[in-house]
């Protein structure tokens, strides 16, 4: 059961990737940006395209620590119910974070979702470490 939240989080990356493609393609077709302006960098993209792109890029930052934790917990047989439940909470916070980032980009809501996810992930790591080190 611990792999299901992993798959759902990976799905978020693909959703954002395809959304980024759609928004960027639309920006080029609508002449909001020229290919020559974005061929070498990201700064020229319109705001909406930049938001979706940043939301996509964020999936390769904090979630990496989640993927590592699960990759370690599985073979070490430490992926118990607590890890599974916390995994779902983390994944939900990532969907909220990405949703806010790619739409309204409300900084307060986005930061709240990020902070909640980071806190949950920290708790997961501490729990995992204590389970290993103290054999609980």
């Amino acid at each position: 059961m611990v792999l299901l939240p992993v798959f759902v989080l990976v799905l978020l990356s693909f959703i954002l990737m395809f959304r980024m493609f759609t928004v960027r393609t639309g920006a080029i077709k609508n002449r909001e940006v020229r290919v020559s302006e974005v061929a070498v960098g990201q700064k020229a993209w319109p705001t909406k395209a930049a938001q979706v792109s940043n939301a996509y890029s964020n999936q390769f930052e904090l979630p990496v620590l989640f993927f590592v934790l699960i990759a370690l917990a599985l073979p070490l047989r430490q992926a118990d119910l607590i890890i599974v439940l916390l995994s779902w909470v983390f994944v939900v916070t990532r969907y909220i974070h990405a949703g806010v980032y790619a739409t309204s980009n409300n900084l307060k809501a986005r930061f709240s979702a990020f902070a909640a996810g980071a806190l949950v992930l920290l708790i997961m790591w501490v729990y995992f470490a204590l389970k290993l080190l103290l054999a609980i």
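The longest helix spans residues 107-134. The mean pLDDT is 94.
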